[in-house]
Protein: Cytochrome bc1 complex Rieske iron-sulfur subunit
Organism: Humibacillus xanthopallidus
Amino acid sequence: MNDNETTAPGESGALVSATPGGVVAQSQADAVDRFENPGLPPHVHRLADDDESAAKRAERQVATMFGLSMLGALVFLVAYFVVPDESTFYFPGIGIASTQNVVLGVSLGISILMIGLGAVHWAKTLMPDTEVVEERHLQASSPEDRAKAVASVSKGGEAAQLPRRPLIKYTLGGALGLFALPLGLQVAGSLGPTDVEELKTTIWDPSYNDGKPIRLMRDPEMTPIKLEDVTNGSVFHVMPETLQKFIDEGKHVLEAKAKAAVILIRLDPELIKVQKARDWGVDGTVAYSKICTHVGCAVGLYEQQTHHLLCPCHQSTFDLTEDCTVIFGPAKRPLPQLKIQVDDAGYLVAPQGFDQPVGPSFWERLR
């Protein structure tokens, strides 16, 4: 307190600090002012609260939404097995789209949307909406309080009118049950091929080029690569020449690219320690799958000094001098090598496809 401040007892006995400009503070040690409880506003009844016909109408509306959800799930299940994978159509603003993908996406979206809308409409029209106030209490509850909580939940189910509205109960159960089937079907049947031979087959296979070797093309320019273009330490992102056929036809282009992505690198041949890797390359120029054997990210980072390839997703590291064996990270097997040669015109070509599956190693667990 400075010389300009004075203190005096307030009306309630609390000390008041004053300055020449007036009162600035009042101690609340002995006088605690409480805000007056404003209470709850009057409850406004909904039409369905007082009119049973309105409640019945709301019940039918909710059940209709759940029924539409079931219909969407059924359309999904039928389309999954009936619509051909190769079927396409022109979608305005997008271009060529897969008929199956569009039907599956729309039907699954409608199914989950109708469940959500039905639940919201049910809550807004039939579930209790009275305002309640509950005082905070200690986290640890007594057995009696827990029993009361269970009773409260049971009472809530009755308040939500489940016993009185069996139509909602049964359609909700049907909607949730059917909606789980498309999700299970997607998980069980759409996580990828289970046939190892299918994983080994990419558009590097000469069968896609009338049995002839396939030229290596720059990605995305799709121009051929001559051996003389690949200098020591250079890196090329490569696609097979056969990709152009898929682009022209507009079928499975992304799937073909995902399996066929290759990285082409040239280093001193004397640094390559594995004879097979030397034999499958040309003068130190080697080609490997870009798809990480961990979870399928693109391996595109090359450390020229250490000759390591790095996956940016989870830091799996592959030693290019050791036939891309794993030296760090979660990947469990080397990157598959693509055998390359030089044709009569000096261009790099692949005389055969991969001799092992590309991408994540989950297929090994199927054996």
